[in-house]
Amino acid sequence: MSAPIDFYFDFSSPYGYLASTQIDALAERHGRKVEWRPFVLGAAFKVTGQKPLVEQPLRGPYHERDFARSARLLGVPFRMPAGFPFFALGASRAVYWLGGEKGKAFAKAVYHAAFGEGRDVTVLATLTELAVGLGVTGLAEGIEFAETKASLRDATDQAIARGVFGSPFFFVDGEPFWGHDRLAQVEIWLARGGW
Amino acid sequence: MSAPIDFYFDFSSPYGYLASTQIDALAERHGRKVEWRPFVLGAAFKVTGQKPLVEQPLRGPYHERDFARSARLLGVPFRMPAGFPFFALGASRAVYWLGGEKGKAFAKAVYHAAFGEGRDVTVLATLTELAVGLGVTGLAEGIEFAETKASLRDATDQAIARGVFGSPFFFVDGEPFWGHDRLAQVEIWLARGGW
Question: Which residues of chain B make contact with A56, given a CB cutoff of 8 A?
Fold first, then answer.
């Protein structure tokens, strides 16, 4: 088994959600695993000077259309949550608190709740419910552990140090790919070992 | 023959160049023609608050890598011109002065010179040479006609009014698609008549 694909994402990212519905199956087709790494996109925006797409003239309306259109093409449910864009600090920390396969399953559940069902995933009750659905209790306490908080901070610092400026962002054997629409290239890169 | 695809682009756009090597053949596969419409991307940036990618921290280095990588995948030559980003006012006007198939052939020649060969297409001598190569003389005068200037201004105003904020940007039967990486969706849209 070769090195895992690093998948950086912020939960407040519709294109990250779309990628979350595809990346594991894509990786598996090429004998790879995926490391799911939530980070705080706002911290990267401070470096690049960007702001959320939907707050930008012309770009906002286009992307709202494109989110839904791309979801329809993939055949995945899509619904914009009312409070978008949001800051999913608790959800992001929870992924690191849970770790491993549980963390990944929780991340998928959060993305599905946020953009598949339009739920508010900044609310602790929602996160608790999703955790319980995976057989996990103690989330409210877990996301407050100093160690949990440090994990998200470290992941965010590391992401920016590696040049991550958007969500989703992938590294395949060190090669960076930004955006859900780069998954086609990710797949070719995996198949050919680069080009 | 159905309605043509509108292809909006700025010459100072590496992704526009990549699209310029693909769009006519793509359209032809679906019995469509393409209207090539240069516009002034800087005018759209004034509306959106964006600036050229290469001037942005993190985003700049990534995109320089991505331009070259995407070109390699397509098998087209790629070379960044020294003065990038540039303002190709004369080249853009010349496309409207020439019009029709001549304008399109000239636009392809300009893009190829700029990003296939890394030449400076803001220089009148380069444009004159490219025009002569197509059997056209009088470019220096033609791009100064009030009517020519008005064509580019009108195209830019119209682009922004239609929501164009980046290059390349396509409309297929009114449906907007932004970016070279949306050509895969453009092709599916043409094949299925939307989804």
Answer: 48-50
